[in-house]
User: Which sequence fits this backbone?
């Protein structure tokens, strides 16, 4: 009973204390992000945060990261601009080896002879959701740049290319498409892709 009265007293004291407007601006929400956490969620995205893995029908289990800016390396692995190309982007707390990327790429390659690039942004996606979310526009921009490099260096045909995204990866996919001025053939949601394999 004493505990209840103590709690009631504390609640009454807290509720009756006047709220200072400056404290609200300092400690509570400005926009949608709590002020004390604003500095913590500003993640500086760099190209080192994104790893790219190439797979094709001959190498459906490949897990060796490639330098997409080295056109000869991509060609040596079996990339063909004459084939369709799929970019698979995982979501929050995933990576290139998660089922989102691994199962989908293997299922696609079992039935199709295409180029598959797994886009691994786990260095960012493994953070708190709000950190990963805030980094999505920059990750999308970097993915768009990587794809543009494939167009310029390896003759990738955007009319034969698709970006598949899951969860936050779908947002990355959409922003990469925006970075390419909508020139990519299509961008699809991961669930849609699984249903249509």
Assistant:
């Amino acid at each position: 009973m004493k505990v209840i009265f103590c709690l009631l007293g504390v609640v009454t004291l807290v509720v009756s204390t006047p709220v200072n407007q400056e404290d609200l601006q300092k400690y509570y929400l400005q926009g949608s992000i709590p002020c004390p956490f604003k500095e913590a969620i500003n993640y500086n995205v760099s190209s080192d945060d994104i790893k790219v893995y190439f797979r094709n029908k001959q190498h459906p289990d490949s897990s060796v990261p490639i330098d997409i800016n080295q056109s000869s390396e991509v060609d040596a692995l079996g990339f063909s601009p004459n084939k369709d190309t799929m970019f698979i982007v995982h979501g929050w707390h995933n990576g290139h080896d998660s089922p989102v990327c691994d199962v989908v790429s293997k299922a696609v390659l079992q039935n199709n002879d295409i180029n598959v690039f797994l886009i691994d942004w786990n260095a960012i996606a493994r953070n708190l959701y709000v950190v990963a979310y805030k980094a999505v526009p920059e990750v999308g921009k970097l993915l768009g740049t990587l794809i543009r490099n494939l167009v310029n260096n390896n003759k990738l045909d955007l009319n034969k290319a698709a970006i598949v995204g899951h969860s936050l990866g779908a947002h990355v996919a959409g922003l990469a498409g925006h970075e390419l001025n909508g020139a990519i053939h299509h961008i699809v949601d991961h669930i849609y892709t699984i249903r249509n394999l």
In short: The first strand starts at residue 29 and ends at 30.
